[in-house]
Each structure stands twice: as C-alpha cells, then as structure tokens.
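Side project, low priority. Logging it here so it doesn't get lost.
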Amino acid sequence: MLSERIVQWLGSWGHLDLPAAGVLAALVVASSFLPFPRTFVFIGAGAAFGMRSLLVILPVAAVASVLAALLARHVLRNWVERQIEKRATWRLIAQAVNDEGWRIMALMRFFGPMPNSAQNYLFGLTKIGLLPYFLITTICTMPQLVFFNYLGASGRALLLEDGSSLKRGLIVAAAVSMAAIVFLVSRRVRAILARKTGVVCAGPVCGEQIVQN
C-alpha cells in the first residue's frame, strides 16, 4: 500500500536529521500544491520519526498553504477560476466562504469535502484576507495534523514495545473520537452549504438545486 511505502521510505532515513527533515518538508510542500495523500505523510512521519516531526510539519504546512493561495491569487487565477466553474461543489463552497466568512473556512480546514491542495487554491480566490487565511489554516488544521502524526507514532511504539491493551484502547478511543468529530463537522459543512445555496449535499457531491417557493 502507498501508506506503507511512505512509512518505509521515511523510516529508511533513520533519524530526523537535516536531510530527513528536508525530505519531509518537501513532501509536505508537495501535498499543499498537488493532490497528494498528505494524511499518509503525517502518519508515516509519526511512525518514522515520532511526534518531534511536528516541528517540521506544522510550520511548513502553514507556510506552504499560504504560498499555494498566493499562487492561485496572482499566477494561476485564470486556471483556478476555470476549475471552479467546472465543479458545482467548488462554486458552492466559494460562495459559502464569501457569504459566511471565516467560519465556513474554519470548518472546511478542520474537515471538508475537498483535498487540502484544492482548498488552498479555492480559498486563495475568496474574499478571505491573507492574515486570516494564515491564522485559520494554522489553527484549524493543527488538530488533524497532530492526530495523524500521533497515530503513526503510537502505532510504531506498539509494534516496537509490544504495547499494553490500555495503550491500544487509548489509540482506538482517539480514532473513534476523531471520526465522530469529523462526522459532525462534515454534517455542519453540508448544512451551511444547503442553507446558503439551496443545494443539498451528500458527502463531497452536491445534488440538484432545491426549488424555492
């Protein structure tokens, strides 16, 4: 599996020295600009280097997201606008962000029906200012980055140390709690989109517009 390959490749670097940190930073940057499975990067970094890899992941992810937004706003604007026009869901989300302000963006950053790289480009063309964009991105993506990194680090610790049933139970409980929060947040996102646009969304795909009487 791709996740296992990423874990093995990151683990092959051994310790989180300067070269390994550079490779990890490059993967995080790539996931901010390309449809790259960054969840596997965070889990793999946790498994390979432990929680200290967050010292690389957190600042690099925030800065790379801002750079991607600036790229969309000033260099790739026409291309991003064409992509938005092709996708009804993207148009609805952009409209909701412009209408709702930072709140809908915060929910989307925590968990929304779009890959992170697509969010970077999309939010770059909204009315959100650069400083609010940076603060919302940094704060609202931090829980999932820490969580996935923790899963990787805890999984490796259990394998290496033959962890107790209590440790396994705590990891399962954390995963279940995260899944419940993701469900509630995603439902809130769909409800806001439906209220603001009159469109019913099921998962990442939105349905036909509701006829308003």
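Brief comment: The chain has one domain: 2-209.
Revisit when time allows.
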